[in-house]
Please model this.
Amino acid sequence: MSIEILLNEFKVAASSPNQLLKKYKDEGKKVIGVLPYYAPEELVYAAGMVPMGMWGSNNKTIMRAKEYCATFYCTIAQLALEMLLDGTMDQLDGVITPTICDTLRPMSQNFRVAIGDKIPTIFLAHPQNRFADWGVQFCIDQYTNVKKMLEKIAGKEITNEDIQNAIKVYNESRAARREFVKLANAHCDVVNPIQRSAVLKAFWFMEKPEYTAKLTALNAELAALPVCDWKGTKVVTSGIICDNPKLLQIFVDNNIAIAADDVAHESRAFLWDVPECEDGLMALALQFKNIDYDVLLYDPASAENRRGEFVANLVKESGAQGLVLFMQQFCDPEEMEYPCLKKALDAQNIPHIKLGVDQQMRDFGQAATAIQAFADVLSMQ
Ligand code: SF4
Model:
């Protein structure tokens, strides 16, 4: 299949999750909504159900969710609830609500109250300290609870073999996405920022074996092309999510390619494979333990600013000239980390800009001016 056809298929999948949800239900499948971050989706797959990522929406306005949310909750959380209240996600068979940040913790209960008995909610509290043995055990206990609730919804037991099979499927997908990110950098004349985003976003909605098969085919086509001689500029993107095609169009208009990303919705979600371990739940807990350089997770050595250096090195190693940080409005973890990130970037003389965004933005005039000016600065370096 040609690159153009494959890219278009990912674009369609990324832009029409509710059509996919309807398709899965028409096929008699059960579907579980999965909120950010780090829910063990493998368990949903192992139960024979389809996981669907719920990262808010670029096309909706917060109306009904206001009743349950403080105004300073980020739009990602509020719009996820909006979709559960306005009927968009009525066909879901359950929702997993992780509680990594100070918004998601209360939101997990707001979801429960707001949707009542309509859809079962599965509460998931990851351990704050994920390194100690008792942190790993806490994670296993939580995942055991998620597993039990998924078994109830699926009407079937999830065996260790089911989990091991799911881990294999997900690790293959992670490897394919890591490969794609590198190839998209080498072939940024063929994969523009909008297409790159759509490929990575489609993962959250498509069935994983189908997604990985298509992405592997796309990777093979891209690998066969000569590396492009890019005349524009390259940046690394950072933040929680930057999937709005209108925002990314500004990159295209200014000949800015994305060399790599430090985005929770993109690369941060597939940097760490699940390690091999005879006990599938232990393997999933160990993967959570192994995650590093993540702004949302506890780092006992945070004073050393390892994460800031990691991101700065990503800019250098990917061949980017600068970094664009998409700061979600009211996102405490990202806002609190920013001074450390800035310090690390400044120390390596890496230019960056910080753009305040949220999912209800419809006018990108200010962002366009800032990105255009940034592209001019980078091109003069
Ligand atoms: S955007 Fe920030 S505040 Fe909102 S759910 Fe994500 S981490 Fe929490």
Residues 24-161 form a domain with the Rossmann fold fold (CATH 3.40.50.11890). The beta strands are 31-34, 50-53, 94-98, 121-124, 233-239, 256-263, 322-328, 352-357. The mean pLDDT is 96.
